[in-house]
Design goal:
The N and C termini lie far apart (95 Å). The chain has helices at 18-52, 73-76, 93-101, 130-171, 175-184, and strands at 57-61, 81-83, 85-88, 105-107, 113-115, 119-121. The chain is 54% helix and 11% strand. The strands form three sheets. It has a two-stranded antiparallel ribbon with strand order 1-3. A two-stranded antiparallel ribbon has the order 2-6. Strand 4 and strand 5 form a beta hairpin. By secondary structure, the chain is mainly alpha-helical.
């Protein structure tokens, strides 16, 4: 079918009224306000998370952000997690070193280990997460202390067992065999 201007294969759409344009502008403005509310909450969540571990959050943005911008929230917003890029303050070399060496890990409210690795739970936008964060950090630290103590005890036990076995082995060797063994070790 050929159109009025003689062009083929061009589908004709209805005329757009000025009301449609005005409504679209209004919705876009409202969307901007709502997104700002969400990103303000995200800033609070990230600042609280970092502060809990003694680190000052400098800035955050989404991976695809243009220079000086935040980027597209909806590309990084998922039902379970929101992915972000974070940086410590500009003049905070101590924080930068700390950020690179500290595991920002907790035991979450589901008794699961969780560690900040560029994403935080989406549910923290809707929940009062502060208690979970503080208690979870304490639980994680206690768990790590217990794990390290158990490992230390295991090493000590192994060391004692090795000494006992070595003493038993030495008692079965003659003086000549012991001397040969010492020379080769």
């Amino acid at each position: 079918m050929e159109g009025l201007l003689g062009m083929k294969d061009i589908k004709k759409y209805d005329v757009v009224s000025e009301d449609v344009i005005a409504k679209c502008k209004e919705l876009n403005k409202e969307l901007g306000v709502l997104e700002e509310t969400i990103t303000d909450r995200m800033t609070y969540v990230l600042q609280t998370l970092f502060a809990t571990f003694g680190i000052e959050l400098g800035t955050w943005y989404f991976n695809d952000a243009p220079e000086g911008g935040l980027g597209d929230l909806w590309q990084h917003y998922h039902d379970d997690d929101i992915y972000v890029v974070t940086e410590v303050g500009n003049n905070c070399e101590k924080d930068r070193n700390l950020f690179n060496s500290v595991d920002m890990a907790i035991i979450n409210k589901f008794d699961e280990e969780w560690e900040f690795q560029g994403a935080f739970p989406t549910r923290w936008l809707f929940e009062d997460f502060e208690t979970e964060l503080l208690e979870g950090k304490k639980k994680y630290e206690e768990q790590e202390t217990a794990r390290k103590l158990k490992l230390k005890e295991k090493r000590q036990s192994q060391k004692e067992e090795d000494k006992k076995l070595a003493a038993e082995a030495k008692s079965k060797l003659s003086k000549k065999e012991l001397a040969a063994l010492r020379r080769t070790l």
